[in-house]
């Protein structure tokens, strides 16, 4: 099976549709199919901050439901899920934009979006193991020794990254560079930390190129190991991108 793995969308629906078209998919009855049977894979963080989180949910739900795509959740997905369950979460860091979209819907529409997203999340694995174990798609990455396992520690790592528990001067969690120390043979494709261009390190690729912050929306074509990007239509915010010392 050949895959097209798409980085963090964050409600940037227009860029998503442009990228899907550029990857060679065509639309049929609101779905996207590829003549060569390729499958879309979403690395999480479908919503928050961007202009069209609800419609992004609806599209990804339809694609996964019709077995045209795969999905692994991100930290923003996890937070939205907890919000929909009625658990106490802070409505900030982008969630406020998705909540505003939900509140603008009528009750029937809102119930359907809740159903679709919660079903999507409930049925998703924490991370995807593909191509007979040669490929893993995990939102914030995963250590080689943890592949194939799930526990509370691994869940935190996969959703939120290798965090120290401390915060930088802007209030963002300090994340360690786990990919620098990765020694596995399995390819790990992930997002979560915005970078200006896809970052290749050992057998890992970060494809979160910060679309919602004015960068690009990027896909990795597998097994070709080629990236395809479309430019963002959002305002550029320089300090949202991380520079790694490679």
UniProtKB/TrEMBL annotation:
It comes from Scopulibacillus daqui. Its EC number is 3.1.3.16. NCBIfam families: PRK13625.1. It is an enzyme of class 3 (hydrolase). It comes from the Bacteria. Keywords: Hydrolase, Nickel. Residues 5-199 form the Calcineurin-like phosphoesterase domain. One of its GO terms (molecular function) is protein serine/threonine phosphatase activity. InterPro entries: Ap4A_hydrolase, Bis(5'-nucleosyl)-tetraP_PrpE, Calcineurin-like_PHP, Metallo-depent_PP-like, MPP_PrpE-like, Ser/Thr-sp_prot-phosphatase. This is Protein phosphatase.
């Amino acid at each position: 099976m050949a895959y097209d793995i798409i980085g963090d969308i964050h409600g940037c629906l227009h860029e998503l549709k442009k990228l899907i078209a550029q990857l060679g998919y065509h639309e049929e009855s609101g779905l996207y199919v590829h003549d060569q049977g390729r499958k879309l894979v979403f690395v999480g963080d479908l919503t928050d901050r961007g202009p069209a989180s609800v419609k992004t949910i609806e599209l990804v739900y339809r694609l996964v439901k019709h077995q045209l795509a795969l999905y692994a959740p991100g930290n923003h997905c996890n937070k939205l899920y907890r919000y929909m369950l009625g658990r106490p979460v802070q409505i900030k860091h982008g969630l406020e934009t998705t909540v505003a979209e939900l509140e603008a819907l009528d009750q029937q529409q809102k119930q359907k979006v809740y159903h679709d997203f919660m079903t999507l999340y409930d049925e998703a694995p924490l991370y995807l193991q593909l191509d007979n174990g040669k490929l893993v798609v995990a939102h914030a990455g995963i250590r080689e020794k943890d592949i194939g396992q799930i526990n509370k520690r691994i869940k935190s790592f996969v959703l939120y990254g290798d965090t120290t528990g401390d915060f930088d001067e802007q209030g963002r969690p300090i994340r360690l560079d786990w990919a620098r120390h990765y020694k596995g043979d399995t390819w790990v494709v992930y997002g979560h930390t915005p970078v200006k261009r896809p970052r290749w390190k050992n057998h890992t690729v970060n494809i979160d190129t910060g679309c919602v912050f004015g960068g690009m929306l990027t896909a990795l074509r597998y097994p070709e190991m080629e990236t395809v990007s479309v430019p963002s239509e959002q305002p550029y915010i320089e300090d949202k991108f991380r520079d790694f010392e490679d």
